[in-house]
Amino acid sequence: SVPLAFFGGVGGASRCGILVKGSNYLEALASVDTVIFDKTGTLTTGTFSVTDVHSLKLDRDQFLELAAYAESYSDHPISLSIKEAFGKPIDKSRVSDAEEISGKGVKSIIDGKAIYAGNSKLMRSLGIDEFPETESATLVHLADEKEYLGYISISDTIKKDAAAAIQGLKDAGVRSAVMLTGDRLAVAQKVADTINLDAFHAELLPGDKVELAEEIIETKKAKGNVIFVGDGINDAPVLARADIGVAMGGLGSEAAIEAADIVIMDDQPSKLSVVIKIARKTLTIAK
Ligand code: ADP
Ligand code: MG
Questions:
Q1: C-alpha atoms less than 13 angstroms from C-alpha of 106 in its C-beta half-sphere
Q2: What was the pLDDT predicted at 136?
Q3: 3-state class of 166 per DSSP?
Q4: Ligand 1 neighbours by CB, cut-off 6 Å
Q5: 92-122: string of b/e by CB count within 10 Å (b at 16+)?
Q6: How do 199-201 and 225-230 pair as beta strands?
Q7: Dist. CA 60 → ligand 2 center (Å)
Q8: Which domains occur in the chain, in start order?
Q9: Can you tell me which atom of ligand 1 is nearest the CA of 71?
Q10: Which residues are designated catalytic?
């Protein structure tokens, strides 16, 4: 039977905007060793703003239009930001096919012509090896079947409470806070330094994230549980693999909210140490 105190704990978490889907997760939370975070939408807001447009052939507006059309069917935070920057309605009848290339970008057929938008991995898969990559920003490269067209430089903002979230975990006795991301090394490095993470891994494909999480779970298991916190876009398998999967409720996909054990309704990563503290207190009362 479930001790009465657990109901109190789940209720207390709920009053703080944290949905805990079962009292067993409170027990698991009380002995957390490592927290793994996804970057985009979890530690950062996921609302990218366009900082630079570098087009080789088209003028700025035409280039932005092509990028927005290439992204027309994607729900990725990068895609939403590019469509926002374009700012005009998209005539989807011009897009006859669209394909998401997980962890790399998108391919769309626009006016009968294939257009690719995504990162360096996507460009290399097209046989394009030469493109600028100096800035420490997220770059969305654009190419057609024949050639490289240029890039849009975008940048995301670290969430206001991200540094406090990491500090809060440390104060709650969590040994290690790690970030996994598909974004560039330079971008990841900046986030890791700013919020004081213990470790990070960048330029990962969704499959790499699962592998790394598994490695962490298997080698650190003896010391305690592993939490994964994500938004469900390209990271749902990791969410399912962790001892405790936490989804951001606001930005997160419906599938992520469904798959998660715990949902942070207002997307604040600092709520994690709040719920760990509630779990510890609940356990003390229950014993
Ligand atoms: P993360 O959440 O760790 O940033 P994702 O796996 O969602 O990683 O994406 C990894 C990388 O793949 C992004 O940083 C971006 O370079 C590229 N990417 C993914 N989806 C898109 C998209 N719709 N348009 C352009 N690039 C994309
Ligand atoms: Mg993601």
A1: 26
A2: 85
A3: helix
A4: 38-40, 71, 74, 76, 78-79, 103-106, 117-119, 138, 140, 181-183, 206, 233-234
A5: eeebeebebeebbbbbbbbeeebbbbbbbeb
A6: unpaired
A7: 28
A8: 4-45+158-286 (3.40.50.1000), 49-155 (3.40.1110.10)
A9: 23
A10: 38
Q: Which residues surround ligand 2, an ion (CB under 5 A)?
A: 38, 40, 233-234
| Residue whose token pair is 């798959």 | 259
Q: Distance of CA 76 to CAs 97, 105, 202, 285, Å?
A: 17, 9, 18, 43
Residue the block writes with tokens 């807001």: 45
Distances (CA, A) of 247 to 51, 225, 250: 29, 17, 9
Please tell me the pTM assigned to this model. Answer: 0.92
Task: Record the tokens describing residue 155, joined without a space.
Answer: 């940048």
Please tell me the distance between residue 142's alpha carbon and the centre of ligand 1 in angstroms: 14
The pLDDT tens digits for 120-156 are 999 999 999 999 987 789 999 999 999 999 999 999 9
